[in-house]
């Protein structure tokens, strides 16, 4: 049986978030355990796809080449650890642009499914309600991590009585453990 894809948000999940955006490779700092977690998923047969809103491009805080450099570095780190990232998709648009690729819209998942020939279903790991909403819209099991904006976003979800994530956990490493246990039951 084919392992389900795992879609992962970048800033606040794989790397430390910054209030002024992650604009360069020098500002990109992996969260401890994140590279190992992605590698574990990959080695277990799960296609790993990174999905990230990068409006810093539209805001002229950085350019496409800065974002691409970060992504090439991430791919390299995971590869050196023995894993593989199947794809990285990002939305370069401003939130007001109304594009189809900006989370919580499903454009990046739809594109990844077509381009990588991925099955329906799977998981979404993120630190924001927009990640959880994308997951619900794309019919994914959602895992909210408490790194990055996760704690504040969980409070927001509860205070606004929004749909709760499938699971809430400390970080990407514990999220991967939850996914590996759940997928073993399938």
Summarize the structure.
With 186 residues, the protein is α/β, with parallel strands linked by helices.
SSE order, one letter for each helix or strand: EHEHEHEHEHEH
How many domain modules? 1
Compute the average pLDDT: 96
Structural class: alpha/beta
Instruction: Kindly report the name of the CATH homologous superfamily.
Output: HAD superfamily/HAD-like
Radius of gyration from the alpha-carbon trace, in angstroms:
15 Å
Q: Mind telling me the CATH class?
A: Alpha Beta
Share of residues in strands = 5-15%
Question: Your description of this structure?
Answer:
Helix content is 38%, strand content 15%. With 186 residues, the protein is an alpha/beta fold. The protein has one domain (6-185): 3-Layer(aba) Sandwich (Rossmann fold). The termini are close together.
Furnish the topology, listing elements before pairings:
Layout: E1 6-9, H1 34-43, E2 48-53, H2 64-80, E3 87-91, H3 107-116, E4 123-126, H4 129-137, E5 141-145, H5 150-159, E6 167-169, H6 172-185
Parallel strand pairs: 1-2, 1-4, 2-3, 4-5, 5-6
Features:
Rossmann fold, 38% helix, 186 residues, six-stranded parallel β-sheet, 6 helices, alpha/beta
């Amino acid at each position: 049986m084919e392992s389900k894809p795992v879609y992962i948000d970048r800033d606040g999940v794989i790397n430390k978030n910054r209030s002024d955006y992650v604009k360069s490779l020098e500002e990109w700092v992996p969260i401890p355990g994140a590279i190992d977690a992605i590698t574990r998923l990959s080695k277990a047969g799960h296609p790993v796809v990174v999905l990230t809103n990068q409006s810093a491009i539209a805001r002229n805080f950085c350019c496409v080449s800065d974002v691409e450099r970060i992504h090439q570095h991430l791919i390299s780190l995971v590869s050196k650890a023995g894993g593989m990232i199947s794809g990285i998709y990002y939305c370069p648009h401003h939130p007001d642009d109304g594009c189809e690729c900006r989370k919580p819209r499903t454009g990046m998942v739809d594109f990844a499914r077509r381009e990588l020939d991925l099955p329906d279903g799977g998981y979404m790991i993120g630190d924001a309600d927009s990640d959880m909403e994308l997951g619900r819209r794309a019919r994914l099991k959602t895992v909210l991590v408490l790194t990055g904006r996760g704690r504040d976003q969980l409070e927001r979800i509860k205070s606004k009585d929004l749909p709760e994530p499938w699971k809430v956990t400390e970080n990407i490493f514990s999220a991967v453990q939850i996914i590996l246990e759940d997928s073993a039951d399938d």
